[in-house]
Specification:
By secondary structure, this protein is an all-beta fold. It contains no helices and 11 strands. The relative contact order is 0.32. The model has no long low-confidence stretch (mean pLDDT 95).
Length: 123
């Protein structure tokens, strides 16, 4: 129901755009988030956007470099990643959270998860 794509290998300072396609239910009433995970660590919140698309929040580590957006009509969520750094290397996951169900930054408040897409930033 959530399909993330767009990962790949990029050099430091480069850009990537991740996409998350939603299907099977109406996610227009869900907050959407991006998380990332590196080996040996838990999932880390990256960015989230409210169900209406009117508000976005970011982890401090990506603020000013990443932009989350959503196209409700197309059932898509995006993460534009600019000025990438080696420490951004991770598997990135998109996730959906029922609206009004909890803080958008909190992993265990999300109800659906995509399969992840690998982003590798070379130094």
């Amino acid at each position: 129901q959530l399909q993330a794509s767009g990962g790949g290998l990029v050099q430091t300072g480069g850009s990537l755009r991740l996409s998350c396609a939603t299907s099977g239910r109406t996610f227009s009433t869900y907050n959407m988030g991006w998380f990332r995970q590196t080996p040996g660590k838990g999932r880390e919140f990256v960015a989230g956007i409210t169900w209406g698309g009117d508000s976005a929040v970011y982890a401090d580590s990506v603020k000013g470099r990443f932009t989350i957006s959503r196209d409700i009509a197309k059932n898509m969520v995006y993460l534009q990643m600019d000025s990438l750094k080696p420490e951004d290397t991770a598997v990135y996951y998109c996730a959906a959270q029922r609206r009004f169900s909890g803080p958008i930054r909190v992993e265990n408040k999300y109800n659906y998860w995509g399969q992840g897409t690998l982003v590798t930033v070379s130094s």
